[in-house]
Specification:
- The protein has 441 residues and is an alpha+beta fold.
- The chain has 17 helices and 11 strands.
- The strands form 3 sheets. It has a 4-stranded mixed beta sheet, with no helix packed on it. A 4-stranded antiparallel beta sheet has the order 6-7-3-8, sandwiched between helices.
- The protein is globular and about 65 Å long.
Length: 441
């Protein structure tokens, strides 16, 4: 099966206009379904039916064979997704997720495993989100090097309002049909999109959107924005620009960089009409065009102002200087993300002190801090990372000492405990220096 899927990818790369008319048998293949079952993590949230991986796997071969037969005769009907919410900065209710039943997760993974090689062959290099072998750090690295080395003077940062809830199903199916000619695959995806959401015991029909939390959702959203934004920028916006034009997208977060202000303004004006044509809407309060680059500081100084900043992928990008006084793009953890991370750590510590022993709580806190640093500890961001470690250390001491009426640690004994648990240092973990030489890239 793996060899067949690899062949699909090679075929898609070699023939960019090819429409695949025979794919459904890969989705129904028992070996493929078994591989998808193995790839799913145990202990994840369950769907409406409450079935876990362990329960489904108790009679795995029989279940997979029966699922394959139902898929083959088009008798498979995905269940409604269970609505769940996770914390989101700036939102009291949180970010909505759609949790699929375990069997539906297997089918979603099988569809994704079959279609992903086709679309990976055609997706633009400007797209980084939820793609194999690509990450936020790669996107940030390329963005930094572009602003640092190219003739960039203006940046347009944009935000799509409620993107995952506003994806138009009709347009999505039209986009899929550019490469997928097997109608059984299309029918299966339509059933998944229309399966509905269960919230407060009621099932609501899904007329728009592709739920976050679904295994297939990231691929479908990338397909949608590939045709709506990525191709449009490369084929229409960039050729019509007077100067340089560059574009970067991670999932539904994107921005564009231009040499001339007229190009930035034109893009901003055209962007709203482009999105509205496909059922999407710009978040006006989060969309703006700013002067940014090697001349922005001097230009702002003449106006008696500070150079503007923009936020992308959790980092505030600002116009800094090298030791020699030359322009350098620098980044720091955005104030919003830093505050949210500290609040999240505090909430965890308050709950953990009631259910964990001291040693276990120290080890879990260490993992959380390392997870934060693995993402945010990049070039020029040591100050914010040091502050995060400083604050989390003191939050941890406070709530460890509130496990009982008697203090668990003095400051000296707490420092010894940190040494014992190998508490992380705020050192730089990712070299994203935009000034480094090309051979070090």
């Amino acid at each position: 099966m793996a060899t067949n899927l690899k062949w699909i990818g090679e075929k898609a790369r070699n023939e960019p206009e090819l429409v695949f008319t025979s794919l459904y048998h890969h989705i129904t293949d028992v070996d493929n379904l078994r591989a998808c079952y193995d790839s799913l993590e145990a202990g994840k949230a369950t769907g409406v039916d409450g079935v876990t991986k362990q329960q489904y796997g108790s009679d795995l071969e029989s279940n997979l064979q029966e699922l394959s037969e139902r898929l083959g005769r088009m008798g498979y009907r995905p269940g409604a997704k269970r609505r769940s919410y996770i914390p989101k900065a700036g939102s009291a209710k949180g970010r909505p997720l759609g949790i699929s039943n375990f069997e539906d997760k297997i089918v979603e993974a099988s569809v994704k495993r079959t279609l992903e090689p086709i679309y990976e062959a055609v997706f633009e290099d400007s797209s980084y989100g939820y793609r194999p072998g690509r990450s936020q750090h790669q996107c940030l690295d390329e963005l930094g090097r572009t602003i640092q080395r190219e003739r960039i003077n203006h940046v347009v940062e944009a935000d799509i309002k409620g993107f995952f809830d506003q994806v138009n199903h009709e347009w999505l199916i039209k986009f899929l049909r550019h490469r997928i000619g097997d109608e059984r695959v299309i029918r299966l995806i339509i059933r998944m999109l229309k399966s509905g959401i269960m919230e407060d015991g009621l099932v609501k029909a899904s007329e728009l959107g592709t739920p976050q939390g679904s295994i297939l959702s990231p691929l479908l959203s990338n397909v949608y924005l590939h045709y709506v934004l990525d191709l449009w920028f490369r084929r229409r916006v960039k050729p019509q620009a007077r100067g340089e034009a560059h574009y970067f997208r991670f999932a539904d977060d994107f921005l564009a960089c231009f040499e001339y202000q007229e190009d930035a303004r034109a893009f901003r004006q055209r962007l709203e009409d482009r999105l509205e044509g496909f059922g999407l809407q710009l978040a006006e309060d989060k969309t703006r065009s700013i002067e940014f680059g090697r001349f922005a500081r001097e230009s702002a100084r003449k106006r008696g102002a500070k150079p503007e900043e923009f936020t992308f992928l959790g980092f505030t990008h600002y116009c800094g200087k090298t030791r020699q006084g030359y322009f350098k793009l620098k980044r720091r953890t955005s104030r919003k993300k830093l505050g949210a991370s500290l609040c999240e750590f505090t909430d965890w510590a308050i709950k953990a002190r009631c259910v964990m022993r001291k040693g276990e709580m120290l080890r879990m806190a260490r993992r959380r801090v390392i997870g934060h640093l693995n993402y945010y500890a990049i070039t020029d961001n040591s100050e914010r990372c040091s502050y995060y470690v400083y604050r989390t250390t003191r939050i941890l001491l406070k709530w460890l000492n509130r496990k009982s009426q008697r203090r668990a640690y003095t400051w000296a004994s707490f420092n010894q405990a940190l040494i014992w648990v190998k508490w992380p240092k705020p050192r730089i973990r990712k070299d994203l220096d935009p000034c480094r030489r090309a051979e070090a890239y």
